[in-house]
Design brief:
heterotrimer, A mainly alpha, B alpha+beta, C mainly alpha, A: mainly alpha, two-stranded antiparallel sheet, 8 helices, about 0% strand, globular, B: alpha+beta, five-stranded antiparallel β-sheet, two-stranded parallel sheet, 4 helices
């Protein structure tokens, strides 16, 4: 039961992007198409999962005073591996995400989960935590990129959805559109929270 | 003091293991990445000049010194003889450099096709340069006459319809084609 | 010379690091509530980015590339930046307590500022020379500082104004950023 809880908390209640407002840089930069959003989410989840497993397995071995540098090295190693794997097997996505793949290293969510969860909990719970946070972040990216792609390009997953007569609001896939979409979503989250409390 | 050495050694071991892991993955992926880069280069060459048995990089033969626009010249061979030329050109667009491939047929002395391979133009406007609706306008142009960008339906053979609201991008592509055209005329047309 | 000018104008206005490349959003939203802290953060980031840009370029050109281990770039750069930030913090603390008091709080935040790592990698990807790389880093840092200070100036006023409750905090800051980003779009095509 508690494992299920570790999984579900990341999806809505502690959604890393919409509730904790972490990992904003890639969320604004690459959410111009759903494809990119999904790809970024998958890469991010893979890194988080791998780093959570290793850090929770080594939590009794890593000396406390140098835990942060150790985490950074571990996370950077996994990011580089994902970077190489994506370059080899998904070249189009690799090109679209560009510099934001190596920048997963400095995504505060990953170091945050290592510090707040993986170094205090077992491997099993850490896996569930990573999956929950990863899925939550991916969902958030897909929502963002869905809104921006439909409004800004008139397509969803590259398939036209608005009909030929509608002309898309170009601004939504330009940089300002990222800020607008994210601002609207956060305002909506605030509204929902105020209603709940 | 001993403690510091212990911590240092620990970090070193972690970094060493991480480095080994990356090196292993790199060993697995490196040939795939290299193969893929080559393949994507060849396949985009094929898109601008389809009918070739072999494509050779002959930049050094046909380009004297560094050129501000032309980056690479590849010659397409058919039955052992040069049949077409593929230029890699880079010109300044609206949001940064626009890189394109320009293909010429030696026999007909015409362009075969133009393909924009990398750009940072405005999405929805200049970025449409990668679409066929624009680049098809550059097909089968006489290499002897400069290509010209027009905003209304082209009436003459050397005119190409600009992308709506992205004249600078359209002109950037045309500049690249014209630079390639001049080199083609001086090297491959006798 | 003019090439350096192109890099500077491009980095500050056209491809502003925050408003069009989306690097360093966390401090942009987090430290832009007060003008004074925005200025402090801006100076600290400029300082670290100039040093980090120089150091990472040297490491890439003289260690990683000759040894054929360019794939260790990410891990090497992040370690250099983390160590550099610690080192700068220690030096400032020893030599200039006044400066430390002003910048100290912002320094630890910079390690996870993706702007530093991001621009270091971009400078390498663009094949810049050492001078171009350093200029690119400093210009981007200036662009960051500019965006941060503009944002702080606007936010200090927004705090006073009457806006719907659910827009308080991040949402209104994001809308502000969006309008600034639209304004900066006007610079495209300048060069």
């Amino acid at each position: 039961m508690s494992l299920v809880n570790e999984f579900t908390k990341g999806i809505i209640r502690e959604n890393p992007l919409f509730v904790l407002v972490l990992g904003t840089c890639p969320a604004l930069a690459i959410t111009t198409s759903v494809n990119n959003g999904l790809g970024m989410g998958a890469a991010f989840t893979a890194v988080l999962l791998a780093s959570n497993i290793v850090i929770s397995a080594l939590r009794k071995v890593i000396p406390d005073s140098i835990r942060i540098p150790s985490y950074i090295v571990i996370v950077a190693a996994f990011v580089t591996m994902i970077d190489l794997i994506m370059h080899a097997y998904t070249p189009a996505l690799y090109k679209a995400l560009g510099i934001y793949i190596p920048l997963i290293v400095v995504n505060c969510i990953i170091l945050g989960r290592a510090e707040a969860f993986a170094n205090k909990n077992g491997v099993g719970a850490s896996i569930m935590d990573a999956l929950g946070m990863g899925v939550g972040y991916t969902l958030a990216l897909v929502v963002m990129s869905g809104i921006r792609e439909i409004l800004g390009a008139g397509t969803f997953f590259g398939i036209p959805v608005l009909g030929a007569s509608a002309s898309p609001a170009l601004i939504m896939i330009l940089p300002p559109g990222g800020f607008i979409a994210f601002g609207c979503i956060l305002a909506l989250m605030n509204k929902l929270q105020q209603k709940a409390s | 003091m001993r403690n510091i050495i212990k911590l240092g050694v620990f970090l070193l071991v972690v970094a060493g293991l991480a480095g080994l892991g990356i090196a292993y993955v790199n060993g697995l992926t490196e040939p795939i990445i290299a193969g893929q880069l080559l393949e994507s280069k060849l396949s985009s060459f094929k898109e601008v000049y389809a009918d070739a048995d072999e494509i050779k990089d002959e930049t050094d033969t046909y380009l004297k010194g560094a050129d501000p626009v032309i980056a690479e010249i590849n010659v397409a061979y058919k039955n052992g003889a040069p049949a077409g030329v593929i230029y890699t050109v880079a010109t300044a667009g609206y949001g940064g450099p626009v890189q394109s491939l320009v293909g010429f047929d030696i026999e007909s002395q015409q362009t075969t096709a133009v393909k924009v391979i990398s750009q940072t133009e405005t999405p929805g406007l200049g970025a449409k340069a990668v679409e066929n609706s624009f680049s098809d306008g550059f097909k089968n142009k006489d290499a002897a006459r400069p290509v010209e960008i027009v905003k209304k339906e082209p009436v003459q053979g050397n005119q190409v319809l600009a992308i709506t609201a992205a004249t600078i991008t359209s002109k950037a592509v045309a500049d690249g084609v014209n630079a390639a055209r001049e080199n083609f005329m001086s090297n491959f047309v006798k | 010379m003019s090439e350096l000018g192109v890099i500077i104008i491009g980095a500050i206005f056209i491809n502003n690091i925050v408003l069009s490349q989306f690097l360093g959003i966390c401090p942009f939203l987090g430290v832009s509530k007060k003008l004074s802290s925005a200025i402090g953060m801006g100076i600290a980031v400029t300082f670290v980015m100039a040093l980090a840009g120089t150091l990472t370029w040297i490491i890439q050109s003289y260690i990683l590339n000759p040894l054929g281990i360019a794939y260790l770039q990410t891990i090497a750069f992040i370690l250099v930046i983390a160590a550099l930030v610690q080192f700068v913090e220690m030096v400032i603390k020893k030599t200039s307590p006044g400066l430390y008091k002003a910048l100290g709080v912002y320094l630890p935040l910079i390690t996870t500022n993706c702007a530093v790592l991001g621009i270091a990698i971009v400078s390498i990807q663009k094949n810049y020379s050492l001078i171009e790389a350093v200029v690119n880093n400093v210009a981007n840092a200036v662009g960051f500082t500019l965006a941060l200070i503009l944002m702080a100036g606007i936010r200090e006023r927004i705090e006073e104004s009457d806006i719907p409750k659910c827009f308080h905090g991040f949402p209104i800051a994001l809308f502000t950023a969006s309008l600034m980003s639209i304004a900066f779009l006007g610079f495209t095509g300048l060069l």
